[in-house]
From TrEMBL:
<dbReference type="Pfam" id="PF25917">
    <property type="entry name" value="BSH_RND"/>
</dbReference>
<dbReference type="InterPro" id="IPR058626">
    <property type="entry name" value="MdtA-like_b-barrel"/>
</dbReference>
<dbReference type="GO" id="GO:1990281">
    <property type="term" value="C:efflux pump complex"/>
</dbReference>
<protein>
    <submittedName>
        <fullName>Membrane fusion protein, multidrug efflux system</fullName>
    </submittedName>
</protein>
<feature type="domain" description="Multidrug resistance protein MdtA-like C-terminal permuted SH3">
    <location>
        <begin position="291"/>
        <end position="348"/>
    </location>
</feature>
<feature type="region of interest" description="Disordered">
    <location>
        <begin position="356"/>
        <end position="382"/>
    </location>
</feature>
<dbReference type="Pfam" id="PF25967">
    <property type="entry name" value="RND-MFP_C"/>
</dbReference>
<dbReference type="Pfam" id="PF25944">
    <property type="entry name" value="Beta-barrel_RND"/>
</dbReference>
<feature type="domain" description="Multidrug resistance protein MdtA-like alpha-helical hairpin">
    <location>
        <begin position="99"/>
        <end position="168"/>
    </location>
</feature>
<keyword id="KW-0472">Membrane</keyword>
<feature type="compositionally biased region" description="Basic and acidic residues">
    <location>
        <begin position="357"/>
        <end position="375"/>
    </location>
</feature>
<feature type="domain" description="Multidrug resistance protein MdtA-like beta-barrel">
    <location>
        <begin position="204"/>
        <end position="286"/>
    </location>
</feature>
<comment type="similarity">
    <text>Belongs to the membrane fusion protein (MFP) (TC 8.A.1) family.</text>
</comment>
<feature type="domain" description="Multidrug resistance protein MdtA-like barrel-sandwich hybrid">
    <location>
        <begin position="59"/>
        <end position="199"/>
    </location>
</feature>
<dbReference type="InterPro" id="IPR058627">
    <property type="entry name" value="MdtA-like_C"/>
</dbReference>
<feature type="signal peptide">
    <location>
        <begin position="1"/>
        <end position="17"/>
    </location>
</feature>
<keyword id="KW-1003">Cell membrane</keyword>
């Protein structure tokens, strides 16, 4: 019986050795499937993004300068018009009659002044021969001056009547697009009250947007240095891009929002954009030349800031902190932490920890694609 403890100890030692061998033989976890991408070199624009609204470069609401009645509407809704095109005619009958009356008064006063001048000349000659007094000559001169003043008043009244008659024809003040019809033949219009038509100039087009005041110093510096470009897209269609340039920075910050108003002009030659639209505005401040870039999906947020998983030569990953310089669409420019040629993980981050082995799903898929192609082409070869 005194050999029993020794036997038990030997058995326990053998069992522990067997367990150790089992642990050593336990296979390593399989590599984590991920998607990777190479850090590349590219020129990346430094941009500020904002939401803007399109505005007409020029816009005018046409209103009558006289009371009257619409005689004819000579445009169609949405028509392109040129400067000087006739849009609406008001009934000119009353104003034409007033002009004739004023012109008749001018003719009368011209006749009176001709008579007054003749009288002045005649009485001046008689005074020189001592047939009339100096007082009579002064009276004729006064009559001539009064007739001259009456003529000027009549001429001014005729000019007013002529202008009022011209106001019966409403023309396009500039080249643009006319809006909806709001008056029709027979409509009564009131001076400076009734809206006759709205004309907008949309080539070029303005886009107004606001930028936080913290960027003001940089904005003014870039604006003074030269043309500050903008890239504009539609909210629901990022495939179409419209380029323009900043033409205006407001002279004061909006105290309610802490932003400053800016305006950009773009050609809009094809008129794809129209006043009132909301637009995405990307304000280009600078361009980073030959920057190290990675897809934005590779950037992860951690407690200490941004980081990426970098694939090492043995297919394990390491966590590397980075500093972001700028972002442009799907690409992000890295200020520090990466060099061109580094391989970073773009998908599959949730299962990663430093030192974990990975396998590239894209590389695994390529041989399968080749096999599949071979299998489909084999029957054709037979």
């Amino acid at each position: 019986m005194k050999f029993a403890p020794v036997a038990l100890l030997t058995a326990a030692t053998l069992a522990l050795a067997a367990c150790s061998e089992d642990i050593k033989k336990k296979p390593a976890p399989p590599p984590v499937p991920v998607t990777t991408a190479k850090a590349t070199e590219a020129n990346v624009p430094v941009a500020l993004r904002a939401v803007g609204r399109a505005e007409a470069y020029e816009s005018v609401t046409l209103k009558p300068r006289i009371d009257g009645q619409v005689a004819a509407v000579l445009f169609t809704e949405g028509q392109h018009v040129k400067q000087g095109d006739v849009l609406i005619r008001l009934d000119p009958t009353d104003f034409a009659a007033r002009l004739q009356q004023a012109e008749a008064a001018v003719a009368r006063d011209e006749a009176l002044i001709a008579k007054s001048r003749a009288d002045t000349a005649r009485y001046t000659a008689l005074r020189d021969r001592n047939f009339v007094s100096e007082e009579k000559v002064n009276d004729t001169r006064t009559n001539e001056a009064a007739a001259t003043a009456n003529l000027r008043a009549s001429q001014a009244a005729a000019e007013v009547a002529r202008l009022q008659l011209s106001y019966t024809t409403i023309r396009a003040p500039f080249t643009g697009i006319v809006g909806a019809r709001v008056v029709f033949p027979g409509s009564a219009v009131k001076v400076n009250d009734t809206t006759l038509a709205v004309v907008n100039r949309v080539r070029p087009l303005l886009v107004s947007f606001s930028i936080p005041e913290k960027h003001l110093a940089r904005l003014r510096s870039a604006f003074k240095a030269g043309e500050m470009g903008v890239d504009i897209t539609l909210p629901n269609d990022k495939s179409q891009h419209f380029t323009g340039k900043v033409i205006f920075i407001d002279n004061a910050v909006d105290t309610a929002t802490g932003t400053i108003l800016m305006k950009a002009s773009l050609p809009n030659e094809d008129e794809k954009l129209t006043p009132g639209q909301f637009l995405n505005v990307s304000l280009i401040l600078d361009v980073l030349e030959k920057a190290v870039t990675v897809p934005g999906e590779a950037i992860q947020q951690g407690a200490d800031g941004n980081f990426v998983y970098v694939v090492k030569e043995d297919n394990s990953v390491e966590m590397r902190k980075i500093q972001i310089a700028a972002a442009d669409g799907s690409l992000t420019a890295i200020a520090s932490g990466l060099v061109t040629g580094d391989t970073v993980v773009t998908d599959g981050h949730l299962r990663l920890t430093p030192g974990v082995k990975i396998r590239d799903k894209d590389k695994d898929a390529k041989p399968a694609d080749k096999t599949e192609k071979t299998g489909t082409e084999a029957p054709k070869a037979q």
